[in-house]
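Retro notes, item 3 of 5
We never archived the inputs for the adenosine-5'-diphosphate complex last cycle. Fixing that now. Sequence and ligand:
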Amino acid sequence: MTTETHEFQAEVKKLLDLMIHSLYSNKDIFLRELISNASDALDRLRFEGLTQAELLPEEELRIRIAADPEARTLVLDDNGIGMTRDELVENLGTIARSGTLEFLRTVEKSSDASPDLIGQFGVGFYSSFMVADEVSVLSRRAGEEDATLWKTDGSGEYTVETAKRETAGTTITLHLKAVDADDGISDYADEWTLRQIVTRFSDFVSYPVRLTVMKKEEGDDIAKAVETEEPLNSMKAIWTRPASDVSDEEYKEFYSHITHDHEDPLLHLATAMEGNFEARALLYLPSSAPVDLYHREMAHRGIQLYVRRVFIMDECRDLMPEYLRFVKGVVDAEDLSLNVSREMLQQDRQILAIRKHLVKKVLESLKALKQEDEEKYLGFWAQFGPVLKEGLLPFDEKKERILDLLYAATTHDGHPLTSLSGYVERMAEDQEAIYYMTGPSREVLVGSPHLEAFVDKGLEVLLFSDPVDEVWLEQMPPEFEGKKFQSVGRGEIDLTSKEEKEEQESDRNQEAEAYKDLIQCMGNAVQKDVKEVRLSHRLKQSPSCLVVDEGDLSPQLEAMLRQAGQAVPERKPILELNPDHAILKRLQEIFEKDGTDPRLSEYAELLFGQAVLAEGGHLEDPGAFTRKLSLLMEKAL
Ligand code: ADP
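Structure as it came back at the time:
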């Protein structure tokens, strides 16, 4: 095939433009990105070689870096899996990864320049354009005859042409920009600089990284390529080294290597399993939630599985439950077969045992963090709390240890968030349940009429507003330290004590009798919207509120299920009216004068409408509601 010119996808153009004009000071990272890609390519070849030995080269699997200070080029060469022409076009001409697309959107939205943002996202191959003004990639896929040369100067286009390459692998040639200390561009053709960067960022890469530099020996006219004798990296798998030997810096570098996340991890956790099954793991909790946290199908780079130091697969989901999907790292199992397939893993007893061990370790280290550094823990909670709470859903999970890690907004003074144990400690002796309320946001919940009686009695209520809360609290409420969870917006709630009740009994009976007909009349007016109208014992200041009947779905959960396309049976709430409120008293007077007064049904509709609004709900006909309200305001003036 002849040379073809292609245009980069619009997003790639943007990304290249960002890289070329990057203000990001740590430009050295481009080398880590390229070595990391080469190391991935070698992993993939070694893996395919397990079943197709003919794909493996005769020479060792390695990464070679060649620098030519005079020509100002830097070449990275690997004898890994390589790419076909189509793969080159697909991988280097377009961006499929949601993470990178999201990165571009974030950059576009933010007004300040983006150096830190670049640091947070792995932009991979394209980071070469921070240091080079021309890049070519010569690649040949293992098992194929033809090679392809891909070339660009970073403007809108690139070319591809058929080319020759002796063996499979990829060679990337960078034409380096001029050294510019102010701009953070070091001399990337300099041996010492390259050594430094490789040892710092890629020491643990499990293939040798060899360096060739053009050198003029004494008496030579022209420079000769001289390869260093030792690889630049120690190649020691970091998880096999005793933790006391590994510095924090090394742990962080390894994290960036496997995740391409340039932000430091929140914490790391090295653990070994002994006994029937042997395995080692090095796990990390990221500091920030990745953009694909809720788009699981697009996520990549979770837990990598190795078997006896041989890379087997990325994103091994069987090793971590969904609710811990933010955990990254490496697991190296001793007793698995190198030929394990994803399908086999699901059933594998060893994988199940490792998973159990890892879950225990992760939850333990979160608990330790919560106890030792609450502020840092709350940082974690803000990022990953909603995901962790998904662990309260499955039946097989031990809920107590997740509840132990839970924080929630609260009505308790001065505490924006509380742990459950904090809540239980503050409970009065005779308080039997943990009171909670769910709703669309903390702000809506704080203003809810349902809280009035609780605030009045000095009872603390937990406020849950993540969508997942609806599910675990409403569907299968667990117990915590022997205490049940009790929704304040559900069923009949009556906080009056037994003695008070006895005292008030005759009053209440009278009240019920007195209001009976009015309630009936108002019930008729709103019967299409509510199941029942009744007098309330939970309201103090508000005239009305909506209550979910015991056993019914909460309105938020109902909306979630509908959104997910599930058929949800028609459900109507109960409208509760406050018998002590002036509105109700006045309505009673009107009713006594004339039971057919049209104001009665108008008020019933208005009381229902405001109860819907108070819980952050949507009115079916907001126009009709506001018209009624305006009319009323006009009359009142
Ligand atoms: P990422 O590595 O995060 O997926 P990159 O932009 O760095 O993103 O690379 C895009 C893709 O190009 C890689 O996923 C890989 O499939 C391919 N690729 C990059 N470098 C190499 C290489 N040296 N050998 C084989 N494939 C490579």
